[in-house]
Amino acid sequence: MSPCRFCEIAAGQLPANVIWADGDVVVFLDSRPLLKGHTLVVPRAHVATFGDLPADRLTTMFAVVQRICRAVEVGLGAEGAFVAMNNKVSQSVPHLHVHVVPRKHKDGLRGFFWPRVHYENDAERDAFAEKICAALG
Prior knowledge:
Blueprint lengths: L4 H6 L7 E4 L3 E5 L9 E5 L14 H19 L3 E5 L13 E6 L18 H15 L1
Antiparallel strand pairs: 1-2, 2-3, 3-5, 4-5
């Protein structure tokens, strides 16, 4: 079995634009965003699926998801956010993760046709991370 990319990010072994980290949860920009500012919220400990997340960690995990959702909206001037989780099917990394995607009307996301976008360069990606971090306070 190959190493889990999200566990490696959580351990600081792979580079990522980390937005938030504590003993239980790590938040970072998606490397293949649906829209710029697309963020992933993951438990630090390896948990493959939603069903595997211990019940006593639900509140901790989703309190961070809620906080990141607010920060994405405020920090990026988004009109709202798309918050979602794939479970097994379409789960590109077998480590539980919640997507928080900034949304604006007519941003191009429709139904389940979601083309990926790219940051122009590292500086643009870093600027998005900084805006979200600043909104966290």
